[in-house]
């Protein structure tokens, strides 16, 4: 049990260090088009709304 908890802690710390040293780059929405299929309800619908709010051109 202690081995499992130790492994999880090491995995979490490694992930946080990776995030710190290799941050993800933000994509500028200027001139970007997003095609979303299946956006009548659920995840696709919410994604289309959120990307539109962020300034992307959404084709749904």
Query: Any idea what the shape is?
Result: elongated
End-to-end Cα distance: 48 Å
**Low-confidence spans: pLDDT under 50, at least 5 residues?**
none
Mean pLDDT: 92
Run of helices and strands: HEHE
Q: Please provide the count of β strands.
A: 2
Give the tally of structural domains: 1
| Strand content bin | 5-15%
Structural class estimated from helices and strands: mainly alpha
The radius of gyration over CA amounts to: 18 Å
Helix count, per DSSP? 2
Q: Major sheet, described briefly?
A: 2 strands, parallel
Helix content: 55-70%
Describe the strand arrangement of the main beta sheet, using strand numbers: 1-2
Output the keywords.
single chain, mainly alpha, two-stranded parallel sheet, 2 helices, elongated
What does this structure look like?
InterPro entries: NAD(P)-bd_dom_sf. The protein is mainly α and 60 residues long. The chain is 55% helix and 10% strand. It is built from two helices and two strands; from the N terminus they run H-E-H-E. It has a two-stranded parallel sheet with strand order 1-2. The longest helix is centred in the first third of the chain and has 20 residues, at 2-21. It is elongated, with a radius of gyration of 18 Å.
Describe how the helices and strands are arranged.
Elements: H1 2-21, E1 33-35, H2 42-54, E2 57-59
Parallel strand pairs: 1-2
Task: Give a quick summary of the entry.
This protein has 60 residues and is mostly helical. The protein is 55% helix and 10% strand. It has one domain.
């Amino acid at each position: 049990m202690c081995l499992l908890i130790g492994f999880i802690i090491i995995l979490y710390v490694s992930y946080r260090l990776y995030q710190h040293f290799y941050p993800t780059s933000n994509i500028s929405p200027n001139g970007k088009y997003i095609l979303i299929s299946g956006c009548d309800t659920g995840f696709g619908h919410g994604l289309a709304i959120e990307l539109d709010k962020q300034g992307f051109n959404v084709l749904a």
